[in-house]
Amino acid sequence: MQINAAILWEQGKPLVIEEAELEAPHAGEVLVEVKAAGVCHSDLHPARGDWPAKTPLVLGHEGTGIVREVGPGVTKVRPGDHVVFCWAPSCGACPMCLEGRPVLCDRLLKTTYRNRLPGGGTRLRARGQQIAHFNSTACFADYAVVAEEGAIAIPPDVPFAVLATIGCAVVTGVGAVNNAARAQPGNSVVIIGAGGVGLNVAQGASLAECDPIIAVDLRATALSLARDFGATHTIEAQTQNVVEVVRELTKGRGSDYVFDTVGMPATIAQAVECARKGGSIVVTGLSRTDTLASIPAFPFVMQEKRLIGSLYGSGEPVADIPKLVGLYREGKLKLRELVTHTYRLDEVNEALNTLAGGTDARGIIEW
User: 173-311 — its CATH code?
Assistant: First the structure.
């Protein structure tokens, strides 16, 4: 079938909206009509060349839509189902999956991280060439073919604009609190970076009854939004000494948990300094692939701090995403409020430029 897609032909160049040919789903795959897609830094990085990627490539990995066709053997969804994309469709059989850590599935190294479908290769072509599916999803397009494990059915009464960010930003932020940190009521929390993921760390910490919840950002507007999502205190990093203020707000101890949603050398070092003795630093932010961070080793050991990497919420997206939708339906989770900018597909380059300039919360593309 002919579709419109945002194709990255060369890293560092604007995406081009043009017609592409999309094959019907193969065995174990589904065709989804895309209704909304979040614009995430994980799309910006390959577009700008921060991460190596073989082009041409259709970006987009965070979104939602309606199943229109299923391939042979599909049992998890059926035509007409509303679904959220999961960009880490796990195999369910490798050691990591059997250990209950599907986001570390061995198959992802050969599929998602090579921008291929688990069923092998690509279903996209344009200008006589094969086009890769970014993160096995490629939802900056009218339609997407994904593995059935990459389409998680959700109730049809939840608006698509609400669901656009749940498959990455929301599950990553809330999951970092629940699964990676396992924060408890009364734990103190610092969040470095109040963007899409940071806001969800804030509301995850609020749901876990943590206190205080301290958001740190360069932008006053982002910090104001963080308070709406559960932050009890905010620190504007341009005008305040972050470590000193964190100490003041935690009775001189430092924070039980520090979440770094930026992942730059300076923020990781700052996160380590903000953590208390025996505290944990949870890093969700992904920067350039060649980024190196350093920390002072002696006090790190002497104070028994822990440095934890958290990918995609460190949980089981197939179970976690429906739970998050349930929390939204109960009025306990903010989702629509995450969307501060809405674009058409032909405005995708504007969306990426706005994100690169430091937008608050999330922009989404709607059909």
Answer: 3.40.50.720
